[in-house]
Amino acid sequence: MNPYLAGTLLGIVLLLAMFISGRGLGASGGIKYCVVSLVGAVNRPHVENSTYYSTYFEDGRKPLTNWLTLEIFGIVAGGFISGALSGRLKLKVEKSPKISVTRRLIFAFLGGVLFVYGGQLARGCTSGAALSGMAVLSLAGFVTMIAIFGSAFVFAWFFRKNWI
Amino acid sequence: MGPLSSYFAFPDWLNMLTAFLIGTGFGFALEQAGFSSSRKLAGMFYGYDTTVLKVFFTAAIVALIGSQFLSYLGLLNLNQVYVNEFYLTASITGGVIMGAGFIMGGFCPGTGLSALSIGKIDAMVFVAGGFTGAFIFTETYPLIEGMATAQYKGPVKINESLGLSPGLFTLIMVAAAAVMFRVAESAEKKFARPEITNELK
Predict the structure, then answer these.
(1) What is the pTM of this model?
(2) In total, how many domains does chain B have?
(3) Contacts of B64 in chain A (CB under 8 A)
(4) Nearest by CB to B120, which of A25, A92, A115?
(5) Is B131 part of any domain?
(6) What range does the domain containing B98 cover?
(7) ω before B11 within 30° of 0 (cis)?
(8) Nearest CA to B59 among A109, A17, A68?
(9) Residue B194: inside a domain, yes or no?
(10) Contact map slice: B 38-97 vs A, CB within 8 A
């Protein structure tokens, strides 16, 4: 799809989130809620003894039925529908032909660790802090956006062999 | 009247359904934008594909202008829309860590989820890494709590800190985006890598 058209579609989805639910979009937060829920299922005493974890279970709340958790389940469903309609459903590792599959997957894993860790520290990733933050004119959103993209341009030089 | 969920006091099930449907629209838009491809996303940082910038700023401007108009028409109370809390140290540190994650992983969390849904194995591994990152965060949060809550500024709006009206700041942002789109289009020609972009088509 034309990028400006896809951007308009994304903007309308974000506007609907603001108009209907009074909030922006998110992704890393939903991943954290899934993890908190898993930890709670595996080791209940650990969760109850931790001041950080226990806040997610206060008043009988369940992190698995949080708004953000349901929203990220929706992301997977929506991506699948789009891929199916455009004939892009295919199991594959996407990578530069110059690097091995193992190298691509190791970097993908490390990138995921850093991205969600950093996203939780900044209280939002590219969706929750940068995009949704900018749409409500939040200073935090603009600062996080500049920090993400600015540092990625600098780091790009070190990892160029992985991509170009 | 908006946000509708508080105006009509949505029951839990309706909030959950809304969240799922909005997520579906989000995942659909990301995949249609081509963000299920890590080599397309990474193109942003080497100049051969600037779709990220075009989609990102178009979306921000559409939501920004749309919400200002809804507020002006009295249809949306912007005071009830969440504005991110600003913790200066955490925003910058977290942002730099995310920048490193972006160039190593080739996805961000939202695009990773969208890409795994169409079968990208690298995206599945990225999201598995994301679960691990969230686990490390929740387990070690007490150790970094001091840093994570330092330099708290509250839910500050950028236009207020610059002393501008929301409308004027929005206009400046639209102008800035128009300039960035032109720069992006010429960067794609200057840093073109047909061997990569042809493969992505």
Answers:
(1) 0.96
(2) 1
(3) 134-135, 137
(4) A92
(5) yes
(6) 11-189
(7) no
(8) A17
(9) no
(10) 38-39, 42, 44-46, 48, 51, 54-64, 66-67, 70, 75-76, 78, 80-88, 90-97
